[in-house]
Specification:
The structure holds two protein chains of two kinds.
Chain A (H helix, E strand, L loop, with lengths): L1 H27 L11 E7 L4 H14 L3 E6 L3 H10 L4 E4 L5 H5 L5 E16 L8 E2 L1 H9 L8 H5 L12 E5 L4 H13 L1 H6 L12 E3 L1 H11 L3 E6 H6 L6 E3 L5 E2 L3 H9 L25 E9 L5 H21 L10 H10 L5
Parallel strand pairs in A: 1-2, 1-3, 5-9, 6-7, 6-8
Antiparallel strand pairs in A: 3-11, 4-8, 4-11, 9-10
Chain B lengths: L12 H38 L2 H7 L2 H4 L3 E2 L4 E2 L2 H32 L2 H15 L3 H28 L14 H25 L3 H9 L4 H12 L1 H17 L2 H6 L17 H8 L6 H35 L4
Helix pairs in contact in B: 2-13, 4-7, 4-10, 5-7, 6-7, 7-10, 8-9, 10-13, 12-13
């Protein structure tokens, strides 16, 4: 009896140690589900902004190619890049392009494939004002630097003739969570203002000179709606789907443009000729009369070297499909599609995957 | 062990040994359970340390005193976050402790049992509500109320204090502290009530027998007797307040600045980690966020340590325990 107890004790503690070891190990490498014998499984992770269209693409692609399953976790651009660099996923996804420093950490060369376009719009809540306001770049910079503090400021009034702006204090609202939306917004402000560039700069989160932080598009919208005199910025898709009023912004050609899907595609098209080989370009403040100035690509990040031949083929097939048939689906979900010139160049880039 | 339930006097000697080895078995098993907790704590500290070494070496103690949090230039300081965490938690306790202990005294000593039981049920229900719900409550009810009525009133009456000055957004440290207070009150009530109920009846009877009124017996005998348990409930509430993330970030304004006014927006350690970790790029940025985690851990240990000291010193000169 005693022996039995000791034996069971040893067994039990051995199980305990083993279990904790397994738990420790599996917490380090992200757990991948076991695929059925004849399915090819791909794992990706990254940006949250394109998640709705990606999940639709992956499920549609699975319908036409049974036996292929692409999993995507929308953990954020930063997380997607980290997981890609550590090799725990087959592909990554990011709103901002990878920096040279990040690319330097990669074991194999990484390709950027733009997939869809997004835009960021200014939204505001001024008591008694129902008209659409027009913003110059200088006004947006002035407000976000904390230099323009009243709605009836002469600089705002200049581009809003006929609007009776009140002497209300401006309450600046920005995103509190790190996000691609903030990246595009600060990238735009950096391009139009050297002062912003040197004082604040561009990133997924920055050291904001003024303002309140709201979590997510919904947090910013909530604060703007509740606070009289507030101004914030949200994704175009979010504003469209939730019918949030937003203002026009003056583009580089001097035209006040209200963001819509075509204006965002036009912004990308105006960069088509000057676009670098690797597509790592910011398309904010685009030239061209129709271009909406606060827009950006979002990317799939694909390693050039994929050991597994079947996985390699799936990725190539998917990219080709995404650039042709897939593009037809994007506008239904309020994303802007890629300009033709960019699609043609991306199709060429696919052959670099080996 | 099935043999353990056999009547003792008919047990042959072998079985006594079996029982004894069962004891050993239980001893080792529970020891392992306890050790695993220690192991988790040690692993936690070790991981936090390893994953923040770069930032630890680069900033040193400057990290604790720095007031800038600039991911673009890679300059990171934790002071505004430490300040926001401590101020909102202190504010929460300031509101929640009198409210919670008062309610607990009523429920355990003064209320009729039927009302006491019904209310306790509701309070325990409140303790189980997820924090995001409290965040929504704060965002849609508390914040507009504070902006329109609460903060103008405070500014009008107590505006001579620097605590109640400046622009009134509704969101800010005050809203953060109040939401936390609402969240931790159920813990204080529920635990304090249990402790007060556990005070022996003889204590009350003795006090009443000496001619004390009902309230004198409650306030001067029962509450001091239950003091340590009540304090424990307060520290549990404090622990929850320090680490609360979701509800705080929804109402605090998320601006890492140190401002004397409670109306001003602030930021807490847990909130900034949750907000920025997913999109953080660059090694130093991530390490700084992990180091913030280490700071929060240290803060919790220091506060719990102080709590122990308070309990020990008051117990030595105290009466009951």
């Amino acid at each position: 009896m005693k022996k039995l107890s000791i034996l069971s004790m040893i067994l039990l503690s051995a199980t305990f140690v083993l279990a904790s070891l397994v738990a420790f190990h599996s917490s380090r490498s992200s757990a991948t589900p076991i695929p059925a014998p004849d399915t090819i499984m791909l794992n990706g992770a990254g940006a949250t902004f394109p998640y709705p269209i990606y999940s639709k693409w992956f499920s549609d692609f699975n319908k036409i190619h049974s036996g292929i399953e692409i999993n995507y976790q929308s953990i954020g651009s930063g997380g997607g890049i980290r997981q890609l660099l550590s090799g725990t996923v087959d592909f990554g996804a990011s709103d901002p392009p990878m920096t040279d420093e990040q690319l330097g950490h990669a074991k194999t060369k990484i390709l950027h494939f733009p997939t869809v376009l997004g835009a960021v719009v200014p939204t505001y809540n001024i008591p008694g004002i129902s008209q659409e306001l027009s913003f110059t770049p200088e006004v947006l910079v002035g407000i976000y630097l904390g230099r323009i503090t009243k709605w009836n400021d002469a600089e705002i009034a200049k581009s809003n003739n006929g609007v009776n702006l009140p002497a209300q204090d401006i309450v600046v609202v920005h995103r509190s969570d790190g996000s691609g939306t903030s990246y595009v917004w600060t990238d735009y402000l950096s391009k139009v203002s050297p002062e912003w560039q040197s004082k604040v700069g561009r990133n997924t989160s920055v050291n904001w000179p003024v303002g309140l932080g709201g979590k997510g598009n919904e947090g910013v919208t909530g604060l703007v709606k509740q606070t009289p005199g507030a101004i914030g910025y949200v994704e175009l898709i979010y504003a469209v789907q939730n019918q949030i009023p937003y203002g026009r912004v003056r583009n580089a050609a001097g035209v006040f443009v209200k963001a819509d899907l075509a204006g965002v595609t036009a912004a990308a098209a105006s960069f088509a000729k000057t676009m670098p080989e690797d597509f790592r370009i910011s398309i904010t403040n685009a030239p061209g009369k129709a271009a909406y100035p606060i827009a950006s690509f979002t990317y799939l990040l694909i390693p050039t070297k994929i050991e597994d031949a079947s996985k390699r083929q799936v990725i190539k097939d998917f990219l080709t499909w995404m650039l042709n048939d897939g593009q037809k689906e994007v506008e239904a979900l309020s994303y802007s599609r890629l300009p033709k010139e960019v699609v043609a160049r991306e199709l060429k880039q696919i052959s670099q995957i080996q | 062990m099935p043999t353990a339930s056999a009547p003792p006097k008919r047990r042959p000697p072998g079985l006594i040994q079996g029982l004894r080895s069962g004891d050993t078995f239980a001893h080792v098993l529970t020891l392992l359970c306890a050790a695993s907790i220690l192991l988790v704590t040690v692993a936690l500290v070790q991981q936090l340390y390893v994953n923040s070494t770069g930032a630890l070496h680069k900033f040193g103690f400057r990290f604790l005193t720095g007031r800038t949090w600039d991911p673009v230039s890679g300059d990171f300081g934790a002071l505004p976050f430490v300040y926001g965490t401590l101020v909102t938690s202190a504010l929460a306790l300031l509101v929640a402790v009198p409210l919670g202990v008062g309610a607990a005294i009523f429920l355990s000593e003064l209320a009729p049992p039927r009302i006491s039981n019904a209310m306790t049920f509701v309070i325990e229900l409140l303790a189980a509500v997820p924090s995001v719900i409290y965040g929504l409550l704060g965002m849609f009810i508390l914040v507009p109320f504070l902006r329109q009525y609460g903060e103008p009133f405070l500014k009008h009456t107590l505006g001579f204090l620097p605590l109640f000055r400046g622009p009134m957004y509704g969101v800010g440290m005050l809203a953060g502290g109040l939401v936390l207070a609402i969240m931790v009150v159920p813990f204080i009530i529920s635990l304090s009530r249990e402790v007060l109920l556990a005070v022996p009846v003889e204590q009350r009877e003795a006090a009443l027998g000496l001619g004390a009124t009902k309230w004198e017996s409650t306030w001067q005998v029962v509450v001091p007797y239950a003091r340590i348990g009540i304090m424990a409930s307060v520290f549990l509430a404090l622990a929850r307040a320090l680490g609360e993330t979701m509800a705080v970030t929804m109402v605090i304004g998320n601006d890492p600045k140190i401002n004397a006014s409670l109306f001003a927006p602030g930021y807490s350690i847990a909130a900034v980690i949750a907000n920025e970790f997913a999109e953080a790029t660059g090694d130093l940025y991530i390490q700084a966020l992990v180091e913030l985690g280490l700071v929060l851990f240290a803060l919790t240990i220091v506060i719990n340590g102080l709590a122990r000291i308070v309990i020990i010193t008051t117990t030595q000169k105290g009466s009951a325990h």
